[in-house]
Design brief:
Length: 498
């Protein structure tokens, strides 16, 4: 069954329809200057298709939150959630088929990119059983897939650009249909824009944007001037879901409105403000809840004195010798606390910072408050613990090479490598995909398989399958090899190590 939704009327007055099923397979790019009607077009598309397909909207300005009142969209305020929380929210929204609006209003550019990337990753990485059709609308897409580096960090830009590339390049097979809108094509990454097969081009004035729009629509360069004459709400359409030839259309009305409407002219008050200078330039009121700043002319002297006092105290501190038995007992207690935390069902999927806070609290309860490892040491302990290593085994000379070779991997992968090394040293079966994903902190078995491939590409391991389809992993140079293990087994090394 073909579902045709009405977007408005053509220049000739005929209904302008959009084939929704074709759109899900071919994606859509909308371009137009500010005020050309892009958000209105997206709102019309979302309203007309809400009854037919699940939707997710990446909303940097909070314009689409009003869809929740009329169509039941779940509004997620990004500033109230962590990146990990938004990734899980994306997965759950896909699994339960709930239409959502990710409201990024109030966040700076870098945090908008990070949180949008996390949410899109959750939509993308969900298991195959939940690859339901979904319309993913990204307003102001140039913010999330910029053509050139801006003021945000390289890490945030890579995360966001990677998520947008996955949406537009690989999302179709997962049921994700990307609909991206941008003010300027020149600011949008070309590999993201190039994946769209349907185009709606609105009013634009810059020559470079008009030329690119004309090229995408198959128009001659001399016809590009027509984009300057388009009125608000008028677009040129082309694509298998819209029209086989460039077609002018006007977007129809919508049932909902954005919270931030276009500004309207308003006459000035008739009565002039008396003594305007005194009112406007009056002294500002004191800031509530913030103490007044007091001058500190001798601040540098105070800092030097405090530093000298701290140095003197450290030099006078008496070091109490600790026996080997006390060190062994302390190490055993710390290992027990870490083991109890990791024994909780969701420990493998919680952020390191959250685990560390719980670890510190438990150490203080056990009377180890003054000897709690710092966050860096805790990360190393956590890596060893997820690999099934205690502190005593990790300090064994035989593990020096393993630790050294693990150091070339990213920190979150080192635990997986050490878990495989432990299985190879002991001759245990190769860990299953479930065990590897759990050690990495993920539910995705595909991610576990990609992780093994990445470690193999670094020259650290060699993966083979025997005649029964069981996996054998050999550590390069160390000549350790795991016993054959079923990649699809429910339990493997972790339960044995535990």
């Amino acid at each position: 069954m073909t579902v045709a939704i009405e977007m408005g009327h053509t220049s000739a007055g005929a209904p302008a329809t959009l084939d929704l099923e074709e759109l899900l397979a071919t994606r859509l790019l909308v371009q137009g200057n500010s005020g050309s009607g892009k958000s209105h077009l997206l709102r019309r598309l979302l309203e007309q298709s809400a009854a037919w397909v699940q939707q997710a909207i990446i909303d940097p300005e909070g314009d689409f939150v009003t869809l929740s009142e009329a169509f039941g969209h779940l509004v997620i305020d990004a500033e109230d959630h962590t990146e990990r929380g938004l990734q899980v929210a994306g997965e759950r929204a896909r699994i339960h088929r709930v239409s959502t609006v990710l409201n990024l209003e109030g966040l700076d550019a870098e945090n908008q990119m990070r949180r949008a990337a996390a949410f899109l990753s959750g939509l993308f990485d969900v298991e195959r059983d939940h690859w339901y059709p979904m319309l993913v609308v990204v307003d102001e897409a140039q913010l999330f897939a910029p053509a050139v580096a801006g003021e945000v960090s390289d890490e945030a830009r890579k995360l966001s650009l990677g998520a947008m590339t996955n949406l537009m390049c690989r999302g179709r097979k997962r049921g994700l249909a990307g609909v991206i809108a941008t003010q300027r094509l020149a600011k949008l990454a070309k590999n993201v824009a190039a994946e769209a097969s349907n185009f709606l081009m609105g009013r634009t004035f810059l020559d470079i944007d008009m030329a690119r729009a004309a090229d995408l629509l198959g128009m001659e360069r001399r016809q590009a001037e027509a984009f300057r004459d388009l009125e608000r709400g008028q677009f040129m359409a082309l694509g298998p879901a819209l029209s086989r030839r460039p077609l002018g259309l006007r977007i129809g009305s919508t049932d909902t409105r954005a919270r931030n409407a276009s500004p309207k002219l308003m006459p000035l008050p008739e009565a002039a403000l008396e003594d305007a200078r005194a009112v406007i330039l009056a002294a500002p009121p004191p800031e509530a809840g913030r103490p007044q700043r007091r001058p500190s002319p001798d601040l540098l002297d105070q800092l030097r004195a405090a530093k000298a006092a701290a140095t003197e105290i450290r030099s006078e501190a008496i070091e109490i010798p600790v026996s080997a038995e006390q060190l062994a007992e302390r190490r055993e207690r710390v290992d027990g606390i870490l083991g109890a935390i990791l024994a909780e069902p969701d420990a493998g999927f919680r952020a390191v910072g959250v685990l560390y806070q719980e670890f510190v609290v438990r150490c203080r309860i056990e009377g180890l408050g003054s000897d709690v490892p710092d966050l860096g040491e805790f990360r190393r302990m956590l890596t060893r613990a997820r690999a099934g290593l205690g502190s005593d085994l990790a300090e064994d000379e035989a593990w020096e090479d393993v630790t050294l070779r693990a150091g070339i991997l990213p920190e979150d992968m080192q635990g997986v490598f050490m878990m495989i090394a432990r299985a190879a040293k002991e001759g245990w079966p190769c860990p299953s995909d479930i065990a590897i994903a759990r050690a990495y902190g993920s539910h995705s078995l595909r991610r576990a398989q990609r992780l093994l491939s990445y470690i193999e590409e670094q020259g650290l391991i060699v993966c083979q399958l025997d005649g029964a389809g069981r996996r054998i992993v050999t550590l390069v140079e160390l000549a350790w090899a795991t016993a054959p293990g079923d990649p699809n087994a429910e339990e493997a090394l972790q339960s044995r190590a535990g």
